[in-house]
């Protein structure tokens, strides 16, 4: 029978095989590393998500059902949605503004350095920095220090914050924070406590007896004798008057007169009140000082953390967009200016459309980044409000290692997070290929 002779390989085919073998040898370390650090953990997490917390009992999709019905996980999903809708857009817009500004200022290099510098700081260090920036104490938190400074520039502080009436003296606190007592007779004593003796002004004199005469006379005093002694609600020796207290005479909701207590705490109203008249100390006399905004409270903790994120990543967006801006065809920009277009028209109708591919890459990259945000939320959010700022990556850590000790549920959350990130990664890869 005839046989088919084996054709010897040509030199070209042999060279191709050698190149393929060499390529495989060179890529093998990277493939092994990729398999050990990416493929294997994903596969193991997928398998582990099908078992209970002990890892021995198969529960199928039970962990996924628990994840989507858990209140903390739903809060994390909601916060992740807020991050995705807000942070990438803000980073992209701020980066675009900074990139355009660097072409307009002489000190562009210093400006770029300052904006990009936060990228050199770890998320741990940045979280610690902003935990201090957002501190509620205005003596430590720079934002509240600025807020208090601005507030105090337009509003006067109350003279005796935290003061309250002495019990069983007829002077009672009202829901609006004011203090009231009937204007019976011609003498009204207004004893107050809750004021440290050191907080009494140096101009204060010993409380004296109210002056006699027509109208209403009274005295506002600190109902406290240094060293002890005296009688509650009475003008004993050693008690000091409280100067600068606003006092009002009110009858039936109608304000009859207003005055301010003297250095010895005394005051006088010439008007003769009716039977229902009252002497009122307004709430403004005792309001606690303004201490700023509760940046890390339940309502503002997520926006505050997003602010820290913008501080870190705005420099990255500026550099990427600036590189795209440098490659724009200048003749188009100059032609538009020659034709009479203003800078805003050039920016809106030419610069932004030409930068659309670069802006898209920055935006999608930021979306992928914020889907995995963990460090800033874990460090900045205080323990009592951490659940209010919770995100998927933090919830994954909490249920797996932060006290939950349920790695089955944590693996399910990890797979869910992967499924949410993968579409944006594919979109970004396609953009890079088209570019």
Features:
435 residues, alpha+beta, MetI-like fold, 2 domains, 5-stranded antiparallel beta sheet, 50% helix, 10% strand
What does this structure look like?
The protein is an alpha+beta fold. 50% of the residues lie in helices and 10% in strands. It has a five-stranded antiparallel β-sheet, with no helix packed on it. It has a four-stranded mixed β-sheet with strand order 1-4-5-8, with no helix packed on it. Strand 2 and strand 3 form a beta hairpin. The longest helix has 38 residues, at 11-48.
Write the CATH architecture name of the largest domain: Orthogonal Bundle
CATH homologous superfamily of the largest domain - what is it? MetI-like
Give the CATH class of the largest domain. Answer: Mainly Alpha
CATH topology assignment of the largest domain: MetI-like fold
Described by the principal axes of the CA atoms, the overall outline is elongated
Count of discrete alpha- or pi-helical segments spanning 4 or more residues: 12
* Gyration radius, in Å: 36 Å
Helix content: 40-55%
Q: How would a textbook summarize the main sheet?
A: 5 strands, antiparallel
Mean pLDDT: 86
- For the secondary structure, the number of strands is 9
Q: What number of domains?
A: 2
Please trace the helix and strand order, writing H or E for each element: HHHHHHEEEEEEEEEHHHHHH
Low-confidence stretches: none
Residue fraction in strands: 5-15%
Indicate the structural class. alpha+beta
Distance between the termini: 59 Å
User: How are strands sequenced across the largest beta sheet?
Assistant: 2-3-9-6-7
């Amino acid at each position: 029978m005839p046989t088919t002779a084996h054709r010897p390989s040509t030199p070209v085919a042999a060279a191709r095989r050698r190149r393929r073998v060499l390529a495989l040898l060179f890529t093998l370390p990277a493939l092994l590393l990729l398999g050990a650090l990416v493929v294997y953990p994903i596969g193991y997490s997928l398998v582990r998500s099908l078992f209970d917390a002990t890892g021995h009992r198969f529960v199928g999709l039970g962990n996924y059902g628990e994840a989507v019905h858990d209140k903390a996980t739903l809060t994390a999903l909601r916060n992740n949605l807020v991050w995705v809708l807000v942070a990438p857009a803000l980073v992209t817009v701020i980066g675009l503004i900074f990139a355009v500004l660097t072409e307009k200022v002489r000190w562009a290099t210093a400006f770029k350095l300052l904006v990009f510098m936060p990228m050199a700081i770890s998320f741990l260090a940045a979280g610690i920095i902003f935990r201090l920036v957002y501190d509620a104490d205005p003596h430590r938190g720079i934002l509240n220090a600025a807020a208090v400074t601005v507030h105090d520039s337009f509003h006067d502080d109350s003279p005796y914050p935290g003061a309250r009436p002495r019990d069983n003296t007829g002077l009672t606190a009202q829901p609006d924070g004011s203090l009231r007592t009937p204007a019976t007779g011609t003498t009204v004593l207004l004893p107050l406590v809750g004021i440290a003796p050191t907080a009494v002004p140096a101009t204060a004199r010993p409380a004296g007896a109210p002056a006699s005469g027509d109208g209403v006379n009274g005295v506002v005093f600190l109902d406290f004798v240094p060293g002890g002694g005296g009688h509650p609600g009475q003008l004993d020796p050693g008690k000091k008057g409280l100067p600068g207290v606003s006092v009002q005479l009110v009858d039936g909701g109608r304000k009859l007169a207003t005055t301010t207590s003297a250095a010895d705490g005394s005051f006088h109203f010439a008007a003769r009140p009716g039977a229902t008249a009252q002497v009122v100390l307004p709430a403004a006399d005792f309001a606690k000082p303004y201490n700023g905004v509760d940046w890390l409270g339940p309502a503002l903790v997520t926006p505050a953390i997003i602010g820290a994120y913008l501080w870190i990543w705005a420099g990255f967006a500026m550099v990427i967009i600036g590189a795209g801006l440098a490659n724009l065809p200048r003749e188009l920009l100059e032609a538009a200016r020659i034709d009479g277009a203003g800078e805003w028209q050039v920016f809106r109708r030419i610069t932004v459309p030409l930068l659309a591919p670069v802006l898209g890459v920055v935006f999608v990259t930021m979306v992928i980044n914020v889907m995995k945000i963990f460090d800033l939320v874990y460090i900045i959010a205080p323990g009592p409000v951490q659940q209010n700022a919770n995100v998927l990556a933090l919830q994954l850590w909490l249920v797996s290692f932060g006290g939950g000790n349920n790695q089955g549920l944590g693996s399910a959350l990890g797979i869910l997070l992967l499924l949410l990130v993968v579409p944006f990664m594919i979109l970004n890869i396609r953009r890079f290929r088209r570019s």
